[in-house]
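Work package 3, deliverable 3.1, input record:
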Amino acid sequence: MITMTVPTERRVCFIDVTGRVAEVLQRCALTDGAVLVTVPHTTAAVTINENADPTVRSDLEMALERLVPDDLPFAHLEGNSDAHAKAMLVGGSVMVPVEAGRLVLGTWQGIFFAEFDGPRQRRLHVQPLSAGDPRTD
Amino acid sequence: MITMTVPTERRVCFIDVTGRVAEVLQRCALTDGAVLVTVPHTTAAVTINENADPTVRSDLEMALERLVPDDLPFAHLEGNSDAHAKAMLVGGSVMVPVEAGRLVLGTWQGIFFAEFDGPRQRRLHVQPLSAGDPRTD
Amino acid sequence: MITMTVPTERRVCFIDVTGRVAEVLQRCALTDGAVLVTVPHTTAAVTINENADPTVRSDLEMALERLVPDDLPFAHLEGNSDAHAKAMLVGGSVMVPVEAGRLVLGTWQGIFFAEFDGPRQRRLHVQPLSAGDPRTD
């Protein structure tokens, strides 16, 4: 497992980490299997979405803000329960298949660290998992 | 990894792919581990839910439409940001345990390709992952 | 794969199962890889979130109730479509990296069984997955 640091610059933002995850994979001997990417935080998430038009990310932020506004009558005194809820909805891990030593992503797919309570210094774990002996021939 | 094509017939629909994923597993030598199912698209998803009463799927479609209406003030000019947001909420992959060469699913569970911006010809990746040498005895 | 039972005591509740998942891992020989935790139900889920202040869980329950109220005009006659929708949004599995034989979780992270249509006797599957021969050195 390799851990990288991800600095975030706003309270809510999506940061493209696809290139950095691909670099981790290149340092492994994994040719066939998958890569598990996890966030060790409870107010951030990781997701796969469009890597082309940046307005998609701002639209996703807007949709999430509408789904879980930060002014709901939350009980948690830290004032970031909206971030906990957004993290739960988006999810704390992604799995990406690996074939011939490469991430299998669609043309428009990128891996994004999703910050919901920044700015902070965050971490992201990348764990390669082997397909093992059984092969699909 | 094996890739299948999934034709979708409406803008939003859930398509049962459980049987096709099970067929892929039968073509592998995998007896103990898990199967990773991923969508290489950013306006579709994959999820596990009830396979019995079809009204559950129409209720899920209605709930998602209510959560992310397509007439929100989105900036993305393609006009499908609601589909990107629904894909993020539902998620682009599922993991199903494999034991004795079979998918471990509950009685009422089916694997569904979730289309949010169809109709289109879509793809679905199925990657077997081994439990490896360590066994739970 | 090891299956545990999880009794739930209310219609909607989050139950910390971190210790029980860690115990399963201790019974395996797995040192490097990941643990897949899945729910074989369609009206329950599993998620990772804050394990410290219990108000976070009640805030998550409130946010979900607001997102999918049980009085939407659902067609499914069993009257639990809200639970199916919440299960879809939260997700039916989590993956936790394993390093040196231990779950890799952040300081504030716990694994929670998420009940949306209890009380019931539920099940949870825990499947260890190996990183395999390829190692990140």
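The longest helix of chain B spans residues 55-67.
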